[in-house]
Design goal:
about 375 residues; mainly alpha; single chain
Length: about 375
């Protein structure tokens, strides 16, 4: 059961926001020397070494080889390999702040997919309205001309790849929810090991395209692996097991905002009014979808307190109907008993007075004993 958030939990949430929001900036820096496939493979391998070492230090070990590794392979592909490749490729054509804003639609995809694949997670009218508001923000950021094919540019395909990464993360979340509970650290370690193996072939293909990396690119890929992927995984599961998913959902609002701030301050990216308007609409759509179901019962509770229900008038229940019912029951019981006696007489079964007379006659016979045994 989730517990109340402590100051340490708020600090953990802040650190997680900075790590995930800065990942787009470090992607931008690492792409100056590493192709997308090499960047993704290096990031995942570094995170795998970190998580596996932490698992060994905690005294735990990997799950045994068998069918339990198949779900981890699905999580590895849709939670690491595919979205990492899509985002890394997209950031060759769009800014890091734009990628961070577009990734914010992931919760809206989760709510939509949950309607079809999670029992009880209905797509309510409030969530539909929230999705429409959030998608309108996406249209504003990408631009109506680019979105509807009037202009054909690489930025459009980069934005579309980022949305594909958000959809992949959403599908991975739905699959993990249907998978049920499990040891999060062992599952994360196994998932990263499989992701490392899946990302290696494409990395070997693009390895000749690697430019001599500078210190900044090496630091960027190291931070992506150690902190943005490895350490953030531990923080993520600690918040899930502590304050719970509702507390962690606030990261959906904080990460895109930090991505915009990091891109503007550290990379000098231009933040237009259109991007800020689109970000505001996406965050408003998320808030409308996630908080709408919680706000409606709260408003109903406030309404009941401000407008109390009229007092109830006590109603006296007379005893006559109960007595009449008892009399009717007695009459019905008497009729049933009389009918039973008539049936027994019709079947030739002696009634109680007859049996008593037969017993008195038998007692006058010589040699009769009260216990029924002959002398």
């Amino acid at each position: 059961m989730p517990r109340e958030a402590t100051p340490h939990d708020w600090l953990t949430l802040l650190v997680l926001t900075v790590l995930w929001g800065s990942a787009f900036m470090f992607n931008e820096l690492a792409l100056s020397a590493f192709p997308p496939a090499v960047l993704v493979a290096g990031r995942i391998v570094i995170a795998t070494i970190f998580i596996w070492g932490f698992l060994r230090l905690s005294g735990d070990r990997l799950p045994p080889l068998g069918r339990s590794w198949l779900p981890m392979a699905v999580l590895a592909f849709f939670g690491n390999v595919l979205p990492f490749h899509l985002v890394a490729w997209a950031q060759q054509h769009i800014d890091s702040s734009t990628a961070g804003i577009l990734m914010a639609v992931m919760p809206l995809f989760v709510l939509t997919l949950a309607h079809f694949f999670i029992p009880g997670a209905r797509l309510t009218p409030l969530r539909v309205v929230g999705f429409v508001i959030g998608f309108s923000g996406v249209v504003i950021i990408i631009g109506p001309n680019t979105l509807f094919g009037i202009e054909n540019s690489a930025a459009f395909w980069g934005a579309l790849a980022t949305l594909g990464a958000a959809l992949s993360y959403a599908g991975n979340t739905i699959y993990a929810r249907r998978l049920g509970p499990g040891d999060p650290l062992r599952r994360a370690a196994g998932m990263l090991i499989i992701a490392s193996m899946l990302s290696m072939p494409a990395a070997f293909v693009e390895l000749p395209a690697v430019v001599m990396p500078g210190m900044l690119a090496i630091v960027a890929i190291s931070v992506l692996g150690l902190l943005a992927t490895g350490f953030s995984t531990i923080l993520y599961f600690r918040l899930i097991q502590g304050p719970g998913p509702a507390f962690l959902s606030m990261v959906n609002y904080l990460v895109p905002a930090w991505a915009v701030v990091a891109g503007a301050l550290l990379l000098g990216e231009t933040i237009s009014q259109t991007m800020m308007l689109g970000l505001g609409l996406i965050l408003a759509g998320i808030a409308f979808s996630e908080l709408g179901a919680r706000v409606v019962p709260l408003l109903q509770n406030v309404r009941d307190r401000l407008l109390p229900a009229p007092p109830r008038v006590p109603v006296r229940v007379s005893a006559q109907p109960r007595e009449a019912m008892d009399r009717r029951s007695s009459l019905r019981a008497g009729r049933r008993l009389q009918a039973h006696r008539i049936v027994r007489l019709s079947e030739g079964t002696p009634t109680l007075p007859v049996r008593r007379r037969q017993a008195r006659r038998a007692s006058r016979r010589p040699g009769h004993r009260p216990d029924g045994l002959a002398r």
